[in-house]
Amino acid sequence: MKAMALQQYGTEDSLREVELPEPKVAPAEVLIGVRAAGVNPVDWKLAAGGLDPVMEAGFPMVPGWDVAGVVEAVGFDVPEYRVGDEVFGYIRKDWAQNGAYAERVSASVRLLAPKPASMSWTQAAGVPLAGLTALQALRRAEVREGDTVLVHAAAGGVGSLGVQIARALGARVLGTASERNHDFLRSLGAEPVTYGEGLVRRVRALAPAGVDAVMDFVGGGAAEQSLPLTEGAGRVVSVADAEVERFGGHYLWVRPSSEDLVELAGMADAGVLTVHVEHELPLAEAARAWRLSKEGRTRGKIVLTV
């Protein structure tokens, strides 16, 4: 099968189209014919060796933890799926090697859920990592109906889904973004706030009493900068800055969850969650996708099609 792979740690310039053996399908796994693979910053950070201290890696390494596709085969003891079923998932394994930037990939059923019927392949592939991150961060902060939530990087992949999920929970959402993305945030139901110097003052103008929770999806000190807006750090969650724990906040590393994917799919099919795919590129242009991701200006998601 064709795949995009690296022979050793490197950058987008190290990605090559290669022929690899068909994936093996272990018990409780399925073989997925990939239709689309979501691109996330962790893909190129992993490829550069950024997770080497905490995660084993094998080469050739095929990146990609987000997938949407069709079940082509099932392993032993898989009552959940049949050949032909459409699925999506966050297929992070315990080591980095066999990812979704390929024609086929095997994955455990605990990492998958039925694809949202209302979404295209590219939209579905943009949901798993970003959607799970947003959902689990909002849960960690115990966001509920009536809360006011500040979402940093609200126009990005995680942020744009976080805005919608928070709104579905009944929260008021203030979202930081550059001015070019303010109309986009309004379309998602958020009240936009320009990031940068004077942020606290601008948020106070919209919410004089401050906010109940802070979602930091960007890092760079955004969580700490937001502390004056909250009654305490207990409902401040960052997915980008582990230093948040130093002042009592929460650092979250997203976990695969079939149950959470089912919940996200339900939101999509209920019409309260959508994915804006800014760039849809063929698999062979994975290097270009990484360059776009590194620019940090993508509205919504970047997705590779297979």
TrEMBL record:
CDD domains named among the record's database cross-references: MDR_like_2
Coiled coil: none
Matching Gene3D superfamilies: Medium-chain alcohol dehydrogenases, catalytic domain (3.90.180.10), NAD(P)-binding Rossmann-like Domain (3.40.50.720)
Positions of the Enoyl reductase (ER) domain: 10-304
Protein name: NADP-dependent oxidoreductase
Source species: Nocardiopsis changdeensis
